[in-house]
Design a protein that fits this description.
Largest sheet: 4 strands, mixed
Strand content: 25-35%
Radius of gyration: 19 Å
Strand order of the largest sheet: 9-10-11-12
Oligomer: single chain
Helix content: 10-25%
Structural class: alpha+beta
Number of helices: 5
Order of helices and strands: EEHEEHEEEHEEEHHEEEE
Shape: elongated
C-alpha cells in the first residue's frame, strides 16, 4: 500500500441549510472552529481526532484564521496543533479556493500533526459560502495541494495499521435532518474500511445530540469497492425494520450513502441485502448505484 498523509474527511449534505459541518448537532447553523482532540482522549479505532467549537465572530477568511491561531477556548477540551507565534502572512480567495500563507513556524509541523492542522484550517474555512477548497503554504515553502472537505487520504504502510478517517451521518436529535461525527478507524491491511465504517454507523453515534437510524440488529455481511462503487451487503434486518414514512426511508438511505462516500475511494453506493441487489426501499427507487447529495 502506498504511504499517504492522514487527512480527516467531512462530506457536505444537501439536507443541511448551508455548507457548515456540525460535529455536535447543536448551536444552530453557526460557524465552528476545528481543533485537535488531545491524544489522551483519542480512541483511534472509533473516535475522531478532530472536533469543533462554536464561533461567533465575523464570517470571513481573516477573522476565522485569527480565531484558529488564537486556539480553542480553555473549557473546550480541545487543543491546537499550530505552533505558538504562527501568523497569517497572506491570504486570498480565487476560484472558490482560499490561498493561505502562514509564517515559517507552521512549517515545523510534519506528518500526521501537519495534516491534522491543515485539515482544521480546511474544515473551518470551507464553511464559508465562497470557499470550496484551501491551499496552504508556510514561510517561503511551496503551496500544498488543494484540500477539500471531501478528501480522505490514508496514512501507513503495509506493515503498519492505517488510520482511516470517515464522516458518519446520523439523525440530529429531535429533527428530520442529518449531521455527522468525524471518526478515525485504525485498520490493518486486511480489514475493509467500508465494512468498518458501516459497522460503526449501525452501532450508533457517540454524540448525545445525534440518534441512530439503522436497526440495532443490522449486520454488515460484506462491503467492497470496485471502480468507485461501494457494494454494501447488509442483512435482512434493513428491510424488516424499514420505516413507513418516505421521509424516514430517505434519511436511512442517505445516511448510508453519505457515510460511505466520505471514504476517498467511494463515489457511488450499490446496496445489497443478503447478496441480492436492493432495487427498492419502501417507496424509494434504488435500481442503480446511488450518488451522494454533493455528487
Amino acid at each position: 500500500m502506498k504511504k499517504y498523509a492522514a487527512i480527516l474527511a467531512a462530506m457536505l449534505l444537501a439536507l443541511f441549510p448551508a455548507c457548515q459541518p456540525q460535529a455536535d448537532g447543536d448551536d444552530g447553523d453557526g460557524l465552528r472552529l476545528w481543533f485537535a482532540v488531545p491524544a489522551e482522549r483519542q480512541i483511534w479505532d472509533v473516535a475522531s481526532a478532530l472536533d469543533s467549537t462554536p464561533y461567533a465572530g465575523e464570517e470571513n477568511v481573516p477573522a476565522l484564521l485569527s480565531a484558529l491561531l488564537d486556539g480553542p477556548p480553555q473549557d473546550s477540551g480541545l487543543t491546537s496543533l499550530v505552533p505558538a507565534g504562527t501568523r497569517v502572512e497572506e491570504w486570498s480567495v480565487t476560484d472558490r479556493t482560499a490561498h493561505v500563507r502562514l509564517s515559517a513556524g507552521y512549517a515545523q509541523l510534519s506528518g500526521v500533526d501537519r495534516t491534522l492542522a491543515d485539515y482544521c484550517v480546511t474544515l473551518t474555512l470551507c464553511q464559508l459560502p465562497g470557499v470550496d477548497g484551501v491551499r496552504l503554504s508556510a514561510g517561503d515553502g511551496a503551496d500544498s495541494r488543494i484540500l477539500r472537505t471531501g478528501d480522505v487520504i490514508f496514512s501507513g504502510t503495509e506493515e503498519e495499521p492505517v488510520d482511516v478517517p470517515a464522516s458518519l451521518y446520523f439523525r440530529r436529535a429531535g429533527s428530520a435532518s442529518l449531521s455527522f461525527e468525524l471518526r478515525v478507524f485504525r485498520l490493518t491491511e486486511d480489514e475493509t474500511p467500508a465494512k468498518a465504517v458501516l459497522e460503526a454507523l449501525a452501532a450508533g453515534p457517540q454524540d448525545q445530540g445525534l440518534t441512530a437510524l439503522l436497526p440495532q440488529n443490522l449486520a454488515v455481511l460484506a462491503a467492497w469497492v470496485d471502480n468507485g462503487v461501494c457494494y454494501a451487503d447488509l442483512s435482512a434486518a434493513l428491510l424488516e425494520a424499514a420505516p413507513e414514512s418516505p421521509e424516514e426511508q430517505e434519511l436511512v438511505i442517505t445516511s448510508i450513502v453519505e457515510t460511505l462516500c466520505s471514504l476517498d475511494t467511494v463515489e457511488q453506493v450499490q446496496l445489497l441485502v443478503e447478496g441480492e441487489a436492493l432495487t427498492a426501499y419502501g417507496g424509494l427507487d434504488l435500481s442503480g448505484p446511488l450518488l451522494p447529495a454533493s455528487g
